[in-house]
């Protein structure tokens, strides 16, 4: 549930100019998530959201563009905890995730700096990774599967 909620937060801040935790909580409730201010605050901290100035002169929540270790670790954990399986065809990799976690897994891949990826497209429980060429697909599959198997080693 936490990953689905955090995924929805990322989606909402990408879609709306959200200035306050109250506004974010309200939008999450409209989407069916029962949240408290403490939950919102914890999610903002875990996602390392920042406030940025908008063209209209207001501040809104946004994903930090800094590439520091804690956020990379966070995205790695999201990937490990949400991905079920990987498969490929030609220069495409299809990744199956837990329900509601496709976007979170795609956001993780987009932010951890995996090479050779042209882009990702996410659904509710799947993610499509477009690779620059077929020759890099196996290397990426190995990388993804190693990330997933790290979950098993932690348990």
From TrEMBL:
- Keywords on this record? Amino-acid biosynthesis, Arginine biosynthesis, Cytoplasm, DNA-binding, Repressor, Transcription, Transcription regulation
In Pfam terms, one family for this protein is Arg_repressor
Localization in the cell: Cytoplasm
One example of the protein's molecular function in GO is: DNA binding
Q: Does the keyword Acetylation apply?
A: no
What sequence ranges are listed for the domain Arginine repressor C-terminal? 79-145
Q: Which InterPro entries match?
A: Arg_repress, Arg_repress_C, Arg_repress_C_sf, Arg_repress_DNA-bd, WH-like_DNA-bd_sf, WH_DNA-bd_sf
What Gene3D superfamilies does the database record attribute to this sequence? Answer: 3.30.1360.40, Winged helix-like DNA-binding domain superfamily/Winged helix DNA-binding domain
Main localization is cytoplasm
The GO annotation for biological process reads:
L-arginine biosynthetic process; protein complex oligomerization; regulation of arginine biosynthetic process
Pathway info = Amino-acid biosynthesis; L-arginine biosynthesis [regulation]
One cellular component (GO) term of this entry:
cytoplasm
Keyword Transcription, does the record have it? yes
Residues spanning the membrane? none
All copies of domain Arginine repressor DNA-binding, residue ranges: 3-66
Return the similarity comment: Belongs to the ArgR family.
User: What is this protein's function per UniProt?
Assistant: Regulates arginine biosynthesis genes.
Q: Which HAMAP family match?
A: Arg_repressor
Protein name per UniProt: Arginine repressor
């Amino acid at each position: 549930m936490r990953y689905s909620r955090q995924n929805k937060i990322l989606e909402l801040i990408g879609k709306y100019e959200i200035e306050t935790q109250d506004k974010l909580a309200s939008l999450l409730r409209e989407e069916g998530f029962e949240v408290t201010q403490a939950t919102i605050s914890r999610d903002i901290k875990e996602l390392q959201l920042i406030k940025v100035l908008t063209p209209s002169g207001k501040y809104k929540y946004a994903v930090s563009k800094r590439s520091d270790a804690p956020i990379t670790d966070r995205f790695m954990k999201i990937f490990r905890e949400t991905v079920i399986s990987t498969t490929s065809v030609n220069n495409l990799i299809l990744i199956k995730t837990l329900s509601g976690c496709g976007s979170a897994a795609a956001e993780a891949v987009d932010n951890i700096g995996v090479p050779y990826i042209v882009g990702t497209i996410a659904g509710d429980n799947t993610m499509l990774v477009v690779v620059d060429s077929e020759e890099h697909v196996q290397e990426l599959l190995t990388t993804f599967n190693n990330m997933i198997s790290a979950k098993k080693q932690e348990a």
